[in-house]
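Let us work through a complete example step by step.
Step 1: write down the sequence.
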Amino acid sequence: MQVTSLLRYSGVCPFLGHSTATSLRSMASTNVSSNVSSLTAKAMTCPMMGPKLASISQARTYASVAGNKEVEEIHKQKNVQFNNAEAAKCPHAQAAREAAANVKETARTAGRFDYQQFYDAELQKKHKDKSYRYFNNINRLAAKFTIAHTSNVKDEVNVWCANDYLGMSKNPVVLGTMKRTLDRYGAGAGGTRNIAGNGALHLSLEDELASLHRKQAALVFSSCYVANDACLATIGAKLPGCVIFSDSMNHASMIQGIRHSGAKKVIFKHNDMADLEAKLQAVPKETPKIIAFESVYSMCGSVAPIEAICDLADKYGAITFLDEVHAVGMYGPNGAGVAEHLDYDAHLATRLSSDPVKGSVQDRIDIITGTLGKAYGVVGGYIAGSADLVDVVRSYAPGFIFTTSLPPAVVAGAQASIAYQREYKGDRRLQQLNTREVKRQLNGLDIPVVPNPSHIIPVLVGDAALAKEASDMLLSNHKIYVQSINYPTVAVGEERLRITPTPGHSTEQITHLVESLDNVFNKLELKRISDWKAIGGRAGVGAPNTIPVENVWSDRQLGLDDGSAPTRLANGAKGVVRDEAVEVAQKRLTHLLGADAGPALASIPYV
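Step 2: predict the structure and record it as tokens.
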């Protein structure tokens, strides 16, 4: 255990509560005897730690590992008769019996593969490189969003890292629609789409998604991991001699899909158009090519130069595969993602149409994938594109064909969520305003945030163990849940805390978050912006000659220029539910669920 790990207990230990990371390291490196450090000696005087350390020391003595011969010799030296009949009562004899049993078991399993040892060795690798994942028990409360309880239902914490970006998982129109669907159609879909799971609700959701992205067709999967894997694997395998150009920071699902396709993979530097073009030039124009990339990269918040990639695709005869997982619901006048947002006014002017805006960036993308489990607050994934492309995936992708269909209540709730967000953009605008405010306050305290133009706030720590300690300290000392992000999700040395504000976070919660982070940075002596700058910078923090970031959402689009921007929550104010958007969302499924929303919808509080 690192010395700084002890600081997680500072809330219950008076000594640790008055200690710093520096003082603890100093005591740990100073010995009072040949084998005992000052820190251990101090712990021995503790009424809690002292007895435990003494028992550990005793357990490590010679007798605990002695064999039969040594045990008998010990008894002779003490003038104690060694009686086999009484051996069961003797700890030395017990140790000998256990040692003999181990030898016998080793002989029995000789020549066999040691599976248990293999599992243990693999796990030890994860512990050694600090990439072992610890999952916190976090239970988000629909009626108290953004609050959750831990394993103890009375222990409530503020959640600051969920991907439920807009709080749609507890939106009353989503919950009400899902309850009505559950009562009418039951819990499960009944099988794959080919057997019993191809219901009217699934088809209706796919029509909604195709309309959202102004594409001819869409196809729903159990998750976007599966959608990315299935689509890239299928299209990459079917296109003869296909070469897939993949951004170096693409998600694991895309990497897996490319691997499963068997196609040649060429990796280009993240968002580097010169590198991409150089690699495209090396492949004949007539060779089928796919450029696979994301709009918003979730761990650093960077945004792809989508239009420039489309230009290169046209120039070198490639098709484009755009993952909008962290952008759908969050960008654009309809919430279709960054590709839509890049032609904001044109899409806003034609928002009631499902026809493509000719020549727009979104229209130029061949394949769009997205999720129903982040901004839309439910679960599932999808692809959208031309009717024939979608049909090829539907007809050939094992990940679609052999997977049980999503439950009716899930797909109905997802469509209600999409319809609501298409009608009301206030949630995503308020989310952006909260993101700007948190970034502003952190910058004022010299707390390092990886620069980006999106809704993600990656706070750079730069050390796996310290990132975990910071996360633990925020949870235990400040009742704030922010997960640490370590390798392999991010590069070694770029470990971070990933913060995602929502429209449901109040000004008071923002103040508490920022003050708590400042406290943790002081306690653990984490590097600030100025520290990173002094050593040349890392992950864009403190780097020389950096260009200021221009946000995806402009002040005009957020309503800051004309005063129409939504107001941040404060002083116990509740979140807004737009009645007109609720009405539109409810009408989407009237033909299947009936016109009456029912009492379930009206009784759900929205916070």
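Step 3: interpret the result. The mean pLDDT is 90.
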